[in-house]
Design a protein that fits this description.
The protein is of the alpha/beta class and 298 residues long. It contains 13 helices and 7 strands. The structure holds S-adenosylmethionine.
Length: 298
C-alpha cells in the first residue's frame, strides 16, 4: 500500500515520521518521495533488513535515522533519537516477503529449513524450542488463539506425538497428517500453525500493544497513526486500541453521568479498514490480506 501510506500520514515538507517496520524500506521510500525534506526514523529487529534498506535509501541518507530495536520501545527510542512529537507513525506489521522467501529463516513451509522464525536473529527463543519443548496445553493455546486454528487440539497432540521435529518441512507434514487434510486444498493446512508459532516466537501481541501505546506518546498533536495488519488477530488489537483511545468516556452505561474524566487521545480517520487496490493485489498477491487503519492524535 505504498501509494496510500503517504496520503494516510498526510506527509508534509519538513515533517518527521517513524517507520516502525522498516523492512526493505519500501514505505519509507514512498514517504521520502512524497514531500520535500522529511526526516524518518526507521526501526527493525532484523539487521539484514536494516542493511538492505540502508543501501536502497542511500540517496536520502541525510534524512534517515536507522535503529535496530523493537517497536515496543518506540516511546523511548523516539525520545533518544529526537523523534518525540513527530508528525506520523507507521506500522506495517508482521513478516516481510524477503524474510518469507529466505530459506534459511524458517518462516515458510515452502522450503525445508530449520525451525527458526525469529525477526531478530539474536533473540533467544526459536520455533524449534516451542515445537519441541512447550507443553501440549500451551501449544494448543497459541495455535488456537494466535493461529485461529479451530482444530488446535489435534495439531498440538500431533506435534507432541511426533517430537522431535527439526525442520519446517517435517512440521508441515505433521500438521497436514494431524488434520487429515486433502492434498489439493487452496490453503496449506499448516498456514495457521506457522502464523501462531511466528507470533509466539516474536511476542507479536505484547509488542503490538506496547508499540501502539508508545506511538501515541511519540506523536505530536495532529500527528497520524497508520497501521497495516495482515490477519484478524492483529487487526482486532489495532481496532480495539484505536476505538478505546478515541472514546470520550469509559463509564458503565448504567451510570447517570460520566465519572471517569477520560481524555481521548485519538480521533479515528478511517471508517472501518482501507484495503489495497485490485491492481496492487494483481501485482503482489501477498498484499491481498492487508488492512489499513488511520487515526489522528488529539
Ligand atoms: C511487513 S515487513 C515491513 C515491510 C516494509 N514496510 C517495506 O516496505 O519493505 C515487517 C518488518 O517488521 C519487522 N518487525 C516485526 N516486528 C517488529 C518489532 N516488534 N520491532 C521492530 N521491527 C519488527 C520485521 O523484521 C520485518 O522486517
Amino acid at each position: 500500500m505504498a501509494a496510500e501510506v503517504p496520503l494516510a500520514l498526510s506527509t508534509k515538507p519538513g515533517g518527521s515520521y517513524i517507520d516502525c517496520n522498516l523492512g526493505e524500506g519500501g514505505h519509507t521510500e514512498a514517504i521520502l518521495k512524497s514531500a520535500y525534506s522529511v526526516s524518518i526514523l526507521g526501526i527493525d529487529l532484523d539487521y539484514g533488513a536494516l542493511s538492505r534498506a540502508q543501501d536502497r535509501l542511500s540517496r536520502w541518507a541525510a534524512q534517515l535515522s536507522l535503529h535496530h530495536g523493537n517497536f515496543a520501545d518506540i516511546a523511548l527510542i523516539a525520545r533518544n533519537r529526537r523523534f518525540s512529537r513527530c508528525d506520523g507513525v507507521l506500522f506495517d506489521l508482521g513478516v516481510s516477503s524477503a524474510q518469507l522467501d529466505d530459506p534459511e529463516r524458517g518462516f515458510s513451509f515452502r522450503y525445508d529449513a530449520s525451525l527458526d522464525m525469529r525477526f531478530d536473529p539474536g533473540a533467544r527463543l526459536t520455533a524449534y524450542d516451542i515445537v519441541n519443548r512447550w507443553p501440549q496445553s500451551k501449544l494448543e493455546w497459541i495455535i488456537r488463539e494466535l493461529g485461529e486454528e479451530p482444530r488446535a487440539r489435534r495439531v498440538a497432540a500431533g506435534i507432541v506425538r511426533n517430537r522431535r521435529i527439526d525442520t519446517t518441512g517435517q512440521l508441515a507434514a505433521v500438521v497436514s497428517k494431524s488434520l487429515n487434510w486433502p492434498i489439493r486444498s487452496r490453503r496449506h493446512p499448516a498456514t495457521r500453525t506457522f502464523q501462531a508459532l511466528r507470533m509466539a516466537v516474536n511476542e507479536e501481541i505484547s509488542n503490538l500493544e506496547r508499540g501502539l501505546a508508545g506511538a501515541v506518546e511519540a506523536l505530536s498533536r495532529g500527528g497520524r497513526l497508520v497501521v497495516i495488519s495482515y490477519h484478524s488477530v492483529e487487526d482486532r488489537i489495532v481496532k480495539r486500541f484505536m476505538r478505546a483511545s478515541a472514546e470520550i468516556c469509559d463509564c458503565p452505561p448504567r451510570l447517570p453521568e460520566c465519572m471517569c474524566d477520560k481524555t481521548p487521545t485519538l480521533t479515528l480517520l478511517s471508517k472501518g479498514v482501507i484495503k489495497p487496490r485490485i491492481s496492487e493485489i494483481r501485482d503482489n498477491p501477498r498484499a491481498r490480506s492487508a488492512r489499513m487503519r488511520v487515526a489522528e492524535r488529539i
